[in-house]
Write a structure and sequence with these properties.
One of its GO terms (molecular function) is protein dimerization activity. The chain contains 14 helices and no strands. By secondary structure, the protein is mainly alpha-helical.
């Protein structure tokens, strides 16, 4: 990096607009963090997700109503940050006619940035949440009811509420595959599906699937054709599975400039180790050493 670029970056960071934008975004993201966590979880329940969405919208609307008092707190934080960095806060020049930005008639710094930045940001986030999380779109989360861990943890099994929610899901998504999804037989499959995983969980025979992909792999298409189709829909929906996004984030962290010459095999191995951090590698050391030793004739004896 050259000296001129470094100076330009410093000037951009020390700009008044940047400091206010950073503070306002931090304020909003602090309130949307719980919603982001629940939407990126491997098992999503419609009830919990819709409650968090509504609570987030209500909180942001309350902040929008009390925007003056809320922004006063942010302005004090900006002043402390600016004083620590020795930055003079100032508003952009106001002209009679402005073509590149809004020309707010305000003389104070806090009033200007409250009108030009804080209020539009809150309005945009609130409208975006309302538009994205409508009732039809939220019903897609009920597809996670077929994941064994979901109905086992919530102890739904085959209650009337659980069956009603499954019936609504089957009616909504039956148009996708009308020859496969049958609403009359789905409840029968559901009872057997719930009972199967209830027995497995009680006896501890195997681990119950906690995401759509594992549940899809564990589902027998001949025995549970309808549930298999629903799990296939859930596995291919971006709103239901965040594994693809996590893989791209992992690749961005692993494939750095210092590892530009790394081969595909090593890169894949590092990414898998990073994604599946819950796997106890120490238990697999013996099998890895044996596989390495038996791959070809070696002089050393690989014995732990």
């Amino acid at each position: 990096m050259t000296t001129s670029k470094a100076k330009s970056f410093v000037l951009s960071i020390c700009d008044t607009d940047f400091i206010f934008a950073l503070t306002c975004l931090s304020y909003v993201l602090e309130r949307t963090l719980p919603l982001s966590k629940i939407l990126q979880s491997s098992t999503i329940d419609l009830k919990n997700a819709s409650e968090i969405v509504q609570c987030t919208i209500i909180v942001l609307q309350s902040n929008r109503t009390n925007c003056i008092s809320e922004f006063a707190k942010l302005y004090s934080e900006v002043q402390q940050l600016a004083s620590g960095l020795d930055i003079d806060l100032k508003i952009p020049r106001i002209n009679k006619k402005q073509t590149h930005r809004e020309n707010y008639n305000s003389q104070s710094i806090d009033e200007y940035y409250c009108i030009s930045m804080f209020i539009p940001l809150l309005d945009s986030i609130i409208e975006d949440l309302k538009r994205r999380f409508t009732l039809p779109s939220m019903e897609a989360y009920d597809l996670s009811l077929f994941i064994p861990t979901t109905f086992l943890q919530q102890k739904m099994y085959c209650t009337s509420e659980y069956q009603d929610r499954v019936s609504n899901v089957s009616k909504r998504f039956s148009s996708i595959e009308p020859n496969i999804l049958h609403g009359k037989t789905i409840l029968g499959e559901l009872e057997i599906w719930c009972q199967k995983w209830k027995i497995i969980a009680e006896e501890g025979i195997e681990k119950c699937p906690d995401n759509a992909i594992e549940a899809f792999s564990s589902c027998n298409a001949k025995v549970f054709p309808n549930i298999k189709s629903f799990l296939q829909i859930l596995s291919t929906m971006p709103v239901g599975v965040a594994s693809a996004e996590r893989s791209f984030s992992t690749l961005r962290r692993m494939k750095t400039w210092l590892r530009s010459g790394m081969g595909e095999t090593r890169l894949t191995g590092l990414c898998l180790l990073h994604v599946h951090r819950e796997v106890n590698v120490n238990e697999l050391i013996q099998s890895v050493i044996e596989r390495f030793a038996n791959k070809k004739q070696r002089r050393l004896d690989f014995v732990l």
